[in-house]
Amino acid sequence: MARFVVRRMASAILLLFAVSIVVFGIFEVIPSYNPARAIAGRNATPTTVAEVSHKFGFDKPVYVQYGKTMELIFTGQVIDYNDNLNVDSQFAQRFPVTVSLVVPAALLWLVASIVLGSISAVRVGGFADRGIMVAAILGVSIPVFLLAAVLLYLFAFKLPWFPNTGYVPLPDNPAQWAYHLFLPWISIAILSIGFYSRVLRSNLLDMVNEDFVRTARAKGLTQRQVFRRHVLRNSMMPIVTMFGLDFAVLLGGAALVTETVFNLPGIGQYEAQAIGNLDVPPILVGAMFTAFFVVLFSALNDIVYALLDPRVRLTG
Amino acid sequence: MTEPLLDVQDLQVSFATEDGLVRAVDGVSFTLERGEVLAIVGESGSGKSVTVMTLMGLTRSPNARFAGSARLHGGDLITASEQELERVRGREIAMIFQDPISSLNPVQRIGNQIAEQILAHEKVSKAEALDRAADLMGRVGIPRAQDRLRAYPHEFSGGMRQRVMIAMALSLSPGVLIADEPTTALDVTIQAQILKEIRQLSLESDSGVIFVTHDLGVVADIADRVLVMYAGQLVEQGTLDEIFYDPQHPYTWGLMGSVTRVDRDPPKRLPAIPGQPPSLLRVPAGCHFGPRCPHAFDRCHEVPPLEPRVPGSPDHLDRCWLDLADKRTRREVGGRIGLAQGDVIK
After folding, report:
1. Considering Cα of A303, then A306, then A309, then A312, what sign does the dihedral take?
2. Handedness of CA B11, B41, B3, B77 (dihedral sign)
3. Nearest CB neighbour to B99, from listed A211, A220, A230
4. Which residues between 219 and 278 in chain A have a beta carbon less than 8 angstroms from any beta carbon of chain B?
């Protein structure tokens, strides 16, 4: 176990650096990228641009710029080019918002997927099954920006059931916190419910034909017992794997569309703005942030898998 | 006369498929007594597995059609409700399957799997169920059973896993034990041990055993009576001696003839039965074995009923129109019982 952790940490560090190099490299090759000009402003003279360039070190060789940026990131001093804010502290401030958005949504979609996928598989071919599968395809197919916008329009504007946008921190007012986040939770959940319930349904249907399920029935267990203890439990593995990865990228800010539409001051919103402005430091930090979570959850995933399935042994 | 333990009457099982109705079991009748071992022999696709799985209610599905009856302790298994079957399965009638590796839940401990069956039918504590599980494991010859309770299936060898299945099946001393090719997936040496276990344990609990197999050696080892199935039908039925020493049906001759004997010279070519079993979608009219039978004659266009045709052996039944003397001559091929190859002078 110790070896496993050490090797994972080592590969995590390597991965973070690889990601940072790739992101940095991308901006070096984008033709329209000129941060000095962006910082200096629209009406700046070439001299001003040159001064800015020098001040920020844009005239130095790539690897020097890279080294400097990384140093700034890890000492908590890196500033974004657009608003002159400290990137690291922005991330720290905005992270709770993203967590508030992502964690309940993830729990919601996980529970809903298991319920819907199970109903579908147990009543396979029936009305409920077909209904759920159609809804699932719709859920998967609708683009998030459309869904978020439609939800906002229908339930906050047309029918003023929910607040327009904005975020209320949990410690301030739990009820308002949930009230404001309700539509965003639905936005995120619908997409994933569609996907997960279909996967679970497929796994369950395969599992039902397994020999050990036949043995369980031959023992005289009720259909419910067979389903819960043998079929469902053995079908959860792929779900766990997928969930780990999805959750990780969401924590890293992948829900940026939802955050933008609902004006939630989370990491995703910040990253979205940075991308729009071609603002390197936040993008760099964001990419590494996400990579960190992916590696963490990937390792957790392997551990959970080893716990659930005794045939699996933890290897590097 | 006392009622038999299990009484199957004219059992029919068909499956409705896109290509038509598959008649998997076409009118099978037999009885089983306590303490006896009944072997069902036949090729793959003969309907033997479907027959026994139907007794357990494991073939029920939206496209399955059933007829006939299977009476156990006065209740009919074919028409029983799901709840009634759940009560009976594992308790009155139990089954062990062919492949012990895939027949056990890979992520559940062995002790729990055995205990699960006990707990499903009896109101005992989990601890007591586990104790009984350890005891059962000991009785089937698994050493250090108490320690092995917490083991997972993949930590056991194939033979051990099958023993676990046997322990599980016999945990509640069911009246009927069905073994569906339990040794096919195991080494020959382990096979002998497993057969011994099954035999011994069923004697101890006075269960009747239905043993499905395609291996005549196994049949000779443990069967008291034998049922021969072909293309969904019972073609011959009798005691072990009757089937082995006085077989009446050409298919049975073919089965006997295809066994290579240690006490004879090896044949130049293995005497296989020519042809293929018929598709159960389009069963031949008349005797199902007719198309492959070198002894077929005009009467064979009529389905022969399963009847006793040997004077003095009322329980030896078969489906062949040939008369007794004819049968006894025709089945002698190359100095032993077999099915004549090629055209036969009628």
Report:
1. positive
2. negative
3. A211
4. 219-223, 225, 229-230, 233-234
Judged by phi (left if over 0) then psi (alpha if -120 to 50, else beta), residue A173 lies in beta
A222 interaction partners in chain B (CB closer than 8 Å): 86, 120
- Residue B148 forms beta bridges with which residues? none
In order of B253, B270, B272, B294, the CA distances from B267 in angstroms are 16, 6, 11, 20
8-state DSSP, A311: T
d(CA A181, CA A165): 9
- Give Cα A279 to chain centroid, integer Å: 21
Q: With a cut of 90, say whether residue A81 has pLDDT above it.
A: no
ipTM of the complex: 0.86
Q: Measured between alpha carbons, how far is residue A89 from residues A210, A256, A266, A293, B293 in Å?
A: 52, 18, 12, 18, 88
Rg of chain A in Å (alpha carbons): 24
What CA–CA distance (Å, rounded) separates A75 from A269? 24
Angle formed at CA A284 by CA A143 and CA A267, multiple of 5 degrees: 50
Query: Is residue B297 helix, strand or coil?
Result: coil
Q: Where are the alpha helices (DSSP H) in chain B?
A: 48-55, 82-88, 110-121, 126-139, 145-148, 158-169, 188-204, 216-222, 240-245, 250-257, 324-330
Tell me the chain A residues in contact with residue B165 when contact means C-beta distances shorter than 8 Å.
215
Would you tell me the crossing angle of helices A233-249 and A174-208 to the nearest 10 degrees? Answer: 140
In this complex, do B103 and A211 lie within 8 Å of one another by their Cβ atoms?
yes
Backbone angles phi, psi at A129, to 5 degrees: -60, -50
| Yes or no, beta carbons of A215 and B97 under 8 Å apart | yes
Q: What is the pTM of this model?
A: 0.82
CA distance A231 to chain B (A): 10
A311 touches chain B (CB under 8 A): yes
* Pairing label, strands B176-180, B208-213: parallel
Residues B57-106: tens digit of each pLDDT: 999 988 999 999 999 988 899 999 999 999 999 999 999 998 888 999 99
Report CB contact under 8 Å: B102, A233.
no
CB B213 within 8 A of CB B43: no
CB A217 to CB B152 under 8 A?
Answer: no
Conformational region of residue B57, where left means phi above 0, alpha means psi within -120 to 50, and beta covers everything else: left
**Inter-residue contact B41 to B228 (CB < 8 Å):** yes
String of b and e for B77-116 (b: at least 16 CB within 10 Å)?
bbebeeeebbbbbbbbbbbbbbbbbbbbbebbbbbbbbbb
Q: Using the beta-carbon criterion (under 8 Å), do B91 and A220 form an inter-chain contact?
A: yes
> Which range (A17-26, A54-63, A170-179, B239-248) has the least confidence?
A54-63
Residue pLDDT, tens place only, B149-181: 999 999 998 888 999 999 999 899 899 999 999
